[in-house]
Design a protein that fits this description.
The complex is a heterodimer of chains A (about 290) and B (about 325).
Chain A: H1 2-33, H2 38-44, H3 60-68, H4 71-102, H5 108-117, H6 123-134, E1 138-143, E2 146-151, H7 158-161, H8 168-179, H9 184-191, H10 196-204, H11 209-225, H12 228-233, H13 242-250, H14 256-276, H15 278-288
Helix pairs in contact in A: 3-14, 4-8, 4-11, 8-11, 9-10, 11-15, 13-14
Chain B: H1 33-65, H2 84-90, H3 93-123, H4 131-143, H5 146-156, H6 162-170, H7 187-211, H8 216-224, H9 229-240, H10 242-257, H11 261-266, H12 278-288, H13 292-316
Helix pairs in contact in B: 1-13, 3-7, 3-10, 4-7, 7-10, 10-13, 12-13
Classes of the chains: A mainly alpha (about 290), B mainly alpha (about 325).
Amino acid sequence: MKNALRLSSFGAMLVRIVFAAVAAFPIVFMLVSSLKPDQQIFGDMSSVAAFLPIGNISLDNYTAVFDRVPAARFLINSIGVSAVTVVLGIFINSLCAFALSRMEVRGKRVVFTAILATLIVPFQTLALPLVWWVNQLPYFELNGFSLEISKGWLDTYQVQIIPFIANAFSIYLYHQYFESIPKELDEAARIDGAGWFKIYRQVVMPLAGPATATVAILTFLPAWNSYLWPLMVVQSEELRPVMIGIQYFFQLNVSWGEVMAYASLITVPVVILFIAFQRSFINSIASSGVKG
Amino acid sequence: MTTTQLPSRPRPGATPPGAPAPSAAPRRRRAGYLREQLSGWGMIAPAAVLLLAFVFLPAILGFGLAFTNARLISPRPVEFVGTDNFARLFADPTFWRALLNVSYFAVVVVPVQSALALAMALLINKKFRGVNFFRTVYFLPVVTSMVVVSLLWLFMYRKDGLINELLSTFSFGLIQGADWLNDPATAMPAIIALSIWQAAGFHMIIWLAGLQSISGELYEAAQLDGASRWHQFRYVTWPGLKHTRSLVLVTITIQALGLFDQVSVMTQGGPLDSTTTIIYEAVRSGFKQQETAYASAISLVFFVLVLLISAVQRYLTREKD
């Protein structure tokens, strides 16, 4: 009996290792190849050396990436766009959820239902009409002392950020979380003379850390990975995010080692973030499963 | 799954059901009522306005534009053309090919990916030494962007690439790999394999959340009754995953129908339209050829398809009491 148990747990471990190998081998291959010249990548392909950083190892591919395209610019664009989307998203969505959850606002049920209704529309359905729509929108820009009005948001930073700030799912997550915080806290603060915004900022938000982590991750990942949208609305090189940048880089017929170097460059930061905040990441994905 | 949990407290000023209308009595409101309304709406407004501008309006616009001749950039005014776009769409063999490809993709990906994800979740459900290591590794492909994954697999799928080398090594030279992405017969299966590889970890986490909500006492009771591993799975785990099951099913299906990134990076719909998809066709006409109206018609058809399929799935997996 005991032997059988040991055997079955050994079998389970074997299956786990096989799955882990399948999950990891392309990523290991990418990281290792990014350090090798093409000739060696193809030479190592038929042996286990394909997965080992041995032989002619250097960072040449990485320096070549920065030489050939403004890769640093693409990285800064993506970091900026993602950061602004995450920060504004946390603020605006939590504020909306706060009012919907904790205040007696007339008509809030209708608003909340309408917000939740947007969850059934996949982004792909909206994308094409949205391109046409943002091209009709005006934009105000302060140029020195004169206010300039330009038509059309195509090829700008704001077109990569503003449509993605408000998010029904983030509002829903915050709403669920706020419901679990006792409302007596608000009443106590009100008796002390606190206004609603102060209650939001000093009572409720400090208690909503896990919800904020979840929303931050669920906003950051699609912003960093966005491809379909910038493909259609960004043309200028200096406005490109990393995912458009890598495709453009690939089309320059560069060596595979350099493509792998660029790919590693935009993947490793996310992997490090994931390992650092593993628990929050997994919780946020688990809660995003509630969507549907 | 989006159940609204609204507070059950009565609203001030709301009439309790069955009470006579308080029209005669002066309406009394507690202090700060107006202020609460104003601050409340002030807090709701930013998100509400943005959702209105970037979700509701484009959705309505898309519906409307599908019946016009709008182009992305055009000097001509937009005109109503009735169902011309749909007539053209349904007469287009590429559209039917795209629909067929997406169905093929979904029919394979939905069952295989959910089964693999469940297997992975079961493997790392119980605590053991190194469980966190396996969780991290299984999840790595999910945090890798689909564009990066597509480029990486594009490299691995070459005739002289890693996949063919591995196939040949593990079969002791028996299998001579195909030129995966350049052969109409193997291009879609190749895209299916990498898509499952990338996304299975995501659904593993959803299964895992479901598994961990099943009470351990049920397993203890089953063990006391001498239930085998298989019986425990069949009579405790499987029924306990009822809600998770329909959730995983619906999310994978919607994801599969929206196939775009992989195709755009790897094959551009080819060879011979064998990998084109509905969204790829929408982008091709709406963005490359700037035919917004035609693309809106495709998007609308896509939306109706998603809605229909998830409604059917919800109906089939509904509570049967």
